[in-house]
Design brief:
about 375 residues, alpha/beta, FAD/NAD(P)-binding domain, D-Amino Acid Oxidase, Chain A, domain 2, 2 domains, eight-stranded mixed β-sheet, 20 strands, globular, binds glycine
Length: about 375
C-alpha cells in the first residue's frame, strides 16, 4: 500500500511527534511511522527539565542547548495544552541536589563551582537548610545545593498530549517500522516499511531514537553513531491519603552514585536511573531495583512507605559526545533528529518554532560525524 505525504517521520517518541505536530500545524501533510506508537525512551523517563543540576564538566555546548530548550518550554507547554486540551504536568519547583557523605559533598561542590562558572544559579545549603526545604530528608544528609531554575514535566502526559495535538493537526499514523529511506537522484523520496508498504514524501525525518542507525539509506558514518544506553527506573505511588513526601526534584550523590527522585502532582514519585551499556537489553534487574531503592532510602527514608507501582527499563539514544545529532544529512530532503541521550524530553521543544536555526544547535549537526556538507 503506497501513501503519499509531504513529510514522513520515522519514530513516534516525543522528538518525532513534536516534529510531526509542528510540520502538520504549519500546513504540511505528515505521516508518522512507529511500530509501538512511541513506546520507547519517552515513556521510561523522569521528565526532568534540568539543565542546571544535570550539567557536567566538558558539556558546555550541550548546556547552552538545554538552556535554550528550558527557556522555550513554558510557552511551548501552554501552546501544546491549548492545542490538545490537556495538561502536561509542568512543575517549576527546582532541584535540590544533596550529598550523602563528606566525599559526596566535595563532589557536589566541585560540580557546583563549574555550574556557577557557566552562569547557573546555585544556592549552597547546609544539612538543616536542606531539611527546612524537604523535611523528610534523612538527618545525616551532609548538605546540598538548590538549583531553583530546574523544572520537570510528567513525561507520559507530555508524550500523550503531544500525540493528541499531532492527531488534532491531522498527522496520519502508520503502525509499522521504517526499513529504509528511498533515494533517487541524490534525494530522499520517501520510505520503505518493514510490513511491505511504502510512503512517498519529499522530506524524511529519522527520529527513531537508539534505533535510528538501523534505518537503511543513512550515510554509513551515521549508522553506528547512536547506541542504546539502558536506564532502569521505578515508579512509586503515595498510599491513599498520605501527603506528598517531597516538593522539589531531589538529586542525590550517595557514596559516589547518582540517584534522583522526581515528584508528580498526582502522587507519583519517580526514582531513577541506572546508566548501563548493555546493548538493546530492556530487562529489569533485581540488583538495579535494590540499588535505586537503597540509595533513595539513604537520603529519603520515607521512600520505603510508598507503593512500588512499576519498574521499567528504556534505551536512551547515546552518542560519542553525549550530544544530539540533528539536521540535514547526505541526500537532499533527509533529516536526522536523534541522539538526545539524557535530554530528549527537554530537547523536543528546542527543535521547534524556528529554534532549529538557533546557534545553540550548530555543534550538533550530523556533519560532525560524516564530514559531508549538510546543505547537499
Ligand atoms: N535525564 C535523566 C536520565 O537520563 O536518567
Amino acid at each position: 500500500m503506497a501513501e503519499i505525504a509531504d513529510v514522513v517521520v520515522a519514530g513516534g517518541g516525543v522528538i518525532g511527534t513534536a516534529i510531526a505536530w509542528r510540520a502538520a500545524a504549519a500546513g504540511l501533510d505528515v505521516v508518522l511511522v512507529d511500530p509501538d506508537e512511541g513506546d520507547a525512551a519517552s515513556l521510561v523517563a523522569a521528565g526532568m527539565l534540568a539543565p542546571a543540576s544535570e550539567a557536567l564538566f566538558g558539556e558546555g555546548a550541550l548546556l547552552r542547548l538545554n538552556l535554550l530548550a528550558v527557556r522555550r518550554f513554558g510557552s511551548f507547554a501552554a501552546e501544546l495544552e491549548e492545542a490538545a486540551g490537556q495538561q502536561v504536568g509542568l512543575r517549576r519547583e527546582g532541584t535540590l541536589a544533596v550529598a550523602y557523605d563528606p566525599s559526596d559533598h566535595a563532589a557536589l561542590i566541585r560540580l557546583t563551582a563549574f555550574r556557577r562558572s557557566a552562569g547557573l544559579a546555585a544556592e549552597e545549603l547546609d544539612s538543616r537548610a536542606c531539611r527546612r526545604l524537604e523535611p523528610f530528608l534523612a538527618p545525616d544528609v551532609h548538605g546540598g545545593v538548590l538549583f531553583a531554575d530546574d523544572w520537570s514535566v510528567d513525561n507520559r502526559r507530555y508524550a500523550a498530549v503531544l500525540r493528541e495535538a499531532a492527531r488534532a493537526a491531522k498527522v496520519r499514523y502508520i503502525r509499522d517500522r521504517v526499513l529504509e529511506v528511498r533515494l533517487s537522484h541524490g534525494r530522499a523520496r520517501g520510505v520503505q516499511l518493514a510490513g511491505g508498504g511504502d510512503v512517498g514524501a519529499a522530506h524524511v525525518v529519522v527520529a527513531a531514537g537508539c534505533w535510528s542507525g538501523a534505518v537503511g539509506g543513512l550515510p554509513d558514518a551515521l549508522r553506528t553513531v547512536v547506541r542504546p544506553v539502558k536506564g532502569q527506573l521505578l515508579r512509586l505511588r503515595h498510599p491513599a491519603g498520605v501527603p506528598h513526601v517531597i516538593g522539589h526534584t531531589i538529586r542525590a550523590i550517595v557514596r559516589g552514585t547518582d540517584v534522583y527522585l522526581v515528584p508528580r502532582a498526582d502522587g507519583e514519585l519517580i526514582v531513577g536511573a541506572t546508566q548501563e551499556e548493555r546493548g538493546p537489553d530492556q530487562t529489569v534487574t533485581a540488583g538495579a531495583v535494590h540499588d535505586l531503592l537503597h540509595d533513595a532510602m539513604s537520603v529519603l527514608p520515607v521512600t520505603s512507605e510508598l507503593i512500588l507501582a512499576e519498574t521499567c527499563a528504556g534505551l536512551r539514544p547515546g552518542t560519542p559526545d553525549n550530544g544530539p545529532v540533528v539536521g540535514r544529512c547526505g541526500p537532499a530532503g533527509l533529516l536526522l533528529a536523534t541522539g538526545h541521550y539524557r535530554n530528549g524530553i527537554l530537547m523536543a521543544v528546542a527543535l521547534l518554532a524556528g529554534q532549529f536555526a538557533a546557534p545553540e544547535w550548530e555543534p550538533f549537526t550530523p556533519q560532525r560525524f560524516t564530514g559531508l556538507d549538510g546543505s547537499r
